[in-house]
């Protein structure tokens, strides 16, 4: 297997990219079974069939692999949120959907793949770049919704936009952050409707 891989990566560009994807896919499966924290790069290399040194040619650390996996998981959640928001016409409904889908998608990751969720916990605790970028994109989406609401007269305009965005994001954050979500699971069924309604009342002009 190593010989075949070496031949493939002798070229540049797409071939190297394919090997990186192969390592990430294998690592995702391995972490799903054994967990992120308990797995070393050596464990992972043996499971994939590569040498440890070969893995390091593509990723500088286990965290770098975790970053890719975490980024993939967060991208799926973000895609669901984007699709839900784009399916609504009014800013208020966009906000309600953002709350609802954010909570549902985060909860599903927690319960369906607990081992992979460990990566998300490590990422949140370590403030990995994949998490910071995800949070920034969600804040940008939220700010866009608030601006749309202001433009059509549905939301108040007295509060500075960045202040309002951060305040609303902090309401949603316990259901997005893996370290906080585990302490809020008992409220996930009622939280989206209750919190979005409260936020919308506060945003009324």
List the helices and strands and how they pair.
Layout: H1 2-8, H2 14-34, H3 41-48, H4 52-58, H5 62-86, H6 91-112, H7 114-126, H8 129-151, H9 161-172, H10 178-181, H11 191-203
Helix pairs in contact: 2-5, 2-7, 5-6, 5-7, 5-8, 6-8, 6-11, 8-9
List keywords for this structure.
single chain, 205 residues, mainly alpha
Fold and architecture overview:
- With 205 residues, the protein is mainly α.
- The protein is 76% helix and 0% strand.
- The protein has helices at 2-8, 14-34, 41-48, 52-58, 62-86, 91-112, 114-126, 129-151, 161-172, 178-181, 191-203.
- The radius of gyration is 20 Å and the shape is elongated.
- It starts with a helix and ends with a helix.
- The model is unreliable at 1-13 (pLDDT under 50).
Write a brief caption for the model.
With 205 residues, the protein is mostly helical.
State the major sheet.
Answer: none
Secondary-structure content class? mainly alpha
Order of helices and strands: HHHHHHHHHHH
Range of helix content: over 70%
The rounded distance between the terminal residues' Cα atoms is 64 Å
Q: What portion of residues belong to β-strands?
A: under 5%
Count of DSSP-assigned helices:
11
How many DSSP E strands? 0
Unreliable segments of 5+ consecutive residues: 1-13
Q: Assign an overall shape.
A: elongated
Mean pLDDT: 85
Rounded radius of gyration (Å): 20 Å
């Amino acid at each position: 297997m190593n010989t075949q891989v070496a031949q493939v990566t002798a070229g540049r560009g797409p071939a190297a990219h394919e090997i990186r994807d192969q390592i990430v896919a294998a690592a995702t499966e391995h972490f799903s079974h054994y967990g992120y924290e308990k797995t070393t790069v050596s464990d992972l290399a043996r499971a994939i069939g590569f040498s440890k040194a070969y893995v390091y040619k593509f990723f500088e650390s286990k965290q770098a692999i975790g970053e890719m996996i975490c980024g993939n998981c967060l991208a799926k959640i973000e895609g669901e949120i984007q699709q839900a928001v784009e399916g609504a016409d009014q800013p208020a409904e966009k906000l309600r959907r953002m709350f609802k889908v954010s909570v549902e998608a985060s909860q599903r990751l927690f319960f369906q793949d607990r081992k992979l969720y460990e990566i998300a916990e490590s990422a949140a605790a370590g403030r990995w770049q994949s998490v910071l970028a995800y949070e920034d994109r969600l804040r940008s989406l939220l700010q866009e919704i608030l601006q749309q609401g202001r433009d059509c007269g549905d939301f108040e305009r007295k509060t500075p936009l960045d202040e309002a965005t951060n305040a609303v994001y902090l309401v949603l954050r316990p259901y997005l952050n893996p370290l906080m979500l585990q302490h809020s699971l008992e409220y996930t069924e009622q939280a989206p409707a209750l919190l979005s309604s409260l936020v919308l009342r506060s945003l009324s002009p």
